[in-house]
Design goal:
single chain; alpha+beta; Aminopeptidase
Length: 214
């Protein structure tokens, strides 16, 4: 389904609350279409897995993690691919949502530069993960590990990844049906959570809160 010309951040939030999300065909596409997949990817907040190799990298402490320090930078990092669904129009809308307090980013820094990150939209106790990127080895995985920890500590009950990829599945993501997803979403929207309140933990704290695999 294509969008109306007067698409706004408020309309975007209503769409998320209905279980649908926007995409564009390409960066310069002015049109937006809405997606409500039959099968939905989620990461159970008690099922995220940190591999031993990722845990070793996190323990080395060669990264710093921040929240909402550079939302635009993370957004542009996610869109900085040859092909992207994040059009200029959607970029502007996500910046609006960030100013409204409904979109947040988590950044991973190495050597003083933005190495990777993830961003998403928040409604109630639901976090709608939009995209992540990495410029250094495992930077996006580190971002995701810290994000899951933050969502758990902040009282979130739903982490929506939209689709299930092999990469996300290796980290503990699963796929559920549309009806199941909408039931979980309805429950999450009746609850409250706080993305900004939890302090940034140590790498060891994040590792200890997740199942480790080889």
């Amino acid at each position: 389904m294509r969008d109306e010309p007067d698409l706004t951040a408020d309309l975007l939030l209503r769409a998320y609350a209905m279980g649908i999300f926007p995409m564009a065909e390409r960066r310069d596409d002015a049109q937006v279409f809405w997606v409500d997949p039959r099968r939905r990817g989620i990461i159970p907040l008690d099922g995220f897995r940190i591999s031993r190799s990722l845990a070793r990298r996190m323990r080395r402490g060669k990264h710093a993690v921040t929240v909402d320090r550079d939302f635009a930078g993370v957004l542009d990092g996610c869109a900085g691919r040859r092909e992207t669904w994040i059009s200029e129009r959607l970029r502007a809308l996500y910046l609006d949502l960030h100013r409204m307090g409904h979109a947040h980013s988590l950044e991973v820094w190495q050597d003083g530069t933005l190495a990777g990150g993830v961003y998403g939209v928040v409604l109630g106790a639901a976090f709608f993960g939009e995209s992540m990127f990495s410029r250094r080895t495992d930077a996006s995985k580190i971002a995701l590990a810290y994000l899951v920890d933050r969502l758990r500590r902040g009282g979130f009950v739903l982490f929506d990844t939209q689709f299930l990829t092999a990469h996300l599945a290796s980290l503990g993501a699963v796929e559920i049906g549309r009806d199941d997803y909408h039931r979980r979403l309805a429950r999450a929207l009746e609850m409250s959570a706080d993305f900004l309140a939890p302090p940034i933990p140590t790498a060891q704290d994040v590792i200890q809160c997740n199942t480790q695999t080889s």
